[in-house]
Structure formats: C-alpha cells, structure tokens
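Shipment paperwork, digital attachment
Item: protein structure file
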Amino acid sequence: MEQPLVKNKFDVSEVRKDFPILSEMPYGKPLVYFDNAATSQKPQVVIDALVNYYTHYNANVHRGVHFLSQKASDAFDGVREKVRGFINAASEREIIFVRGTTEGVNLVAATYGRKNIQQGDTILVSAMEHHSNIVPWQLLCEEKGARLSVIPMNEKGELVLDTLDELLNDHCKFVAVTHTANSLGTINPIKEIIAKAHAKNIPVLVDGAQAVAHDQVDVQDIDCDFFVFSGHKMLGPTGVGAVYGKLSLLEEMPPYHGGGEMIKSVSFKGTTWNDVPYKFEAGTPNIADVIAMGAAIDYWNSIDRVGAHEQEIELLNYCTALLADIPSVRIIGTAQHKAAVVSFVVDKANAMDIGMFLDTKGIAVRTGQHCAEPVMDWFGISGTIRASFMFYNTKEEIDLLKFDNSLFNSLSSSSAAIGYLIYGFSL
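Attachment content:
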C-alpha cells in the first residue's frame, strides 16, 4: 500500500493533493467544503486502506489460524497501539473500539454509570453539550432516580466556571463535558475542570469528538477518566471510534454487550468475561474501518501538525474578521479560545435558505441546531450557519463567503427572493 508523503513543513497546496474529493465540482463549481465539524474528508491513504483490506485480506479477526485471518488480526490489533499513541494513553488495554463518540458515551453510561450512580446523585454536564452527551445521561438519571445538573455559559459561549464549586457538591458523582463545542467552537479549559472534579473524587468523561482533529490530545496530561472520539471527524471512516478509560476503572465495569469475543467461557450455568478491552467488544468488530482509522492516524503522524493547527487558527481569525464586516451578520460564539468553527446568523434570514444559496456556489456549510438544541435555545435562535474548517481549507475559499450587505438584505427579504437567487425563478 502506498505510504503517505512525509512533509517537513506544512504546505496547504501540497496537502490538498492528498484529498481526492477536493477536486469535485458540484454544480460545475469547485467544491468548498466547510462542514468539517460534521465529518472530515479522507486522504487517499485512508481510502486505500479500506480497499486494500477488502481486496487482499478480508477475513474475521481472532477466529482463524489461516493466513488471511492472521493478517487481518495483526492489522486490526496494531491499530489499538496507534490509538494509544495518538492520545497518549498509558496502555493499549485502555482503548476500546466502538462505532463512534455516541456509542462511546452510551457505553460508559451503561456500564460505569449503571453500576455507580444511585438515587439522589447528580451527573454534571455543560450547557454546550452535543445531544449525544446529554441524552445517555438523562436516560441513566431516569432509570436511577438521579438528576442532571448543568454548568452554565455566558453570552460569549464560555462556561461559567465560578459555578463549579457549588455544582461539584456531595451529590455530584460524575462529570461529562465536551472538550470542544461543535456548535460554537469553544475550547473548554478541560484540564482545570478535571482537576476541580478530582479534588472531590469525581470522575470525568471528556467528549473529544471535535478535539482530536484539531489539538494534540494527551489523556494522561489532562488526567481524564474517560475520553471518547470518532474516527470520521479526524480523517478516518464513519462507523468507528474509540473509548479511552483508565484501566482500573475499566476492570471494575460490567460488560456492555453480550456475545462472542467478550467471553472467556460460556456454559448454561454461567459465563466468565474476557479481559479488558475485549470485555467491551462483543461480536465481529468493524475490522475494515478500524484498520482505516489506523491509516488516518498514520497520516496525522506524517504531516506537520503544528503547521496544520496554525493554518486552522489563521482561517478562524480570517473568517471571523470577514464576517464581522458584514452588518447583517452576527457571530454566535465569541469565546477567547476557539477551534476553527464559525457559527453565524443573518438578520431576518433563515439559516437553511442561506445554506441552500451557498450550496449553489459549491460551498458546503452546515445549517440548523447542530445537535445542540439547548445551545440554540440559550441564544434565542432557531439555528445557525456553521462554517467549520480543516487544515486543507484556504483563505481563498473563505473569501467566497463574503457577500455585500445588499445580497444579504435580498436573502432576508422573502422566500420569493430566496427562490429567485437559488433557482432563478420566483416561487
């Protein structure tokens, strides 16, 4: 399989060559992909890894002694070490493969949470969580007679940490908080939050879905108890991700699903569980996508990550300044520390209409609530237009978001104007 090109210095024009989809021409216009917070695009080496597995060594892992099974098992098992290094876990036994961040949160809620949360306890989340880091805890609270508590945020989209001392009380038994907010781009002071929780002996889960592709995460440094992320947001395929958990906690947690792989022995009298991490990985795993996620990590290790990060911050600042100059535009989320995400609204205009108009120009943005309805409710809006960047985006692409105020006024005037601008005829 072709290996990714090792780049000594970040060069966006060279990096873009690694992503075949960026040459697509929707509606005959060059693709401008600003929906990276939803899912990132894939370098050719990730695509090749998928094809190579299915073409040359497709077989179940840990099941057979034949050549294909051994090759597939070696490739699959090797990714666990790659993930360990990617987030600097202490042991590859602390890495559990799951379908993504959503399943990762549900796994922790259904195992650690169900075992340890009792009636009258509280689980603390933040006001800027994705639904996937709210709903599993709500379900657990309903089951256990516990209560969900919320760290508030201010008008900039920053958590009000002065409330932590009160919220981290004797009733609080678990904290689940996002590292980086998908709807606002806010980067939370996660290390500080964890330290305050640990001072009260409260474990912390970090939703790292938006963080791993934009920051070099070190789970030992931040000292989180659990960390969950998805492959598809960090250049890997969909349908795969990982849970990190401190080994001592994982060993005490009950299984998540029952079936093959997670057992040592089965009889009608009883079953004994496999060792961590296999105790949490029932059934045939997502072999191809795990291997491809490993290829994505290899790609990350091949590029100048510092340069890539600097590129994203430059894009964030450039886009923020550009949109701030348009009178009709209001940026939602102005935290001091942000990832490369800009959410905005346009006066009197519907976010979906703006998104549809931009789509005709080949520009892909996300519109709506971004699976963060409580955030939108807090700001008193129905949704935003969200432009989210990856290191392969450019300032020239962002320039295409600059429209004069008259255009935005026409967009906001009526649905008929929207129809004319998008489709060329009146509705």
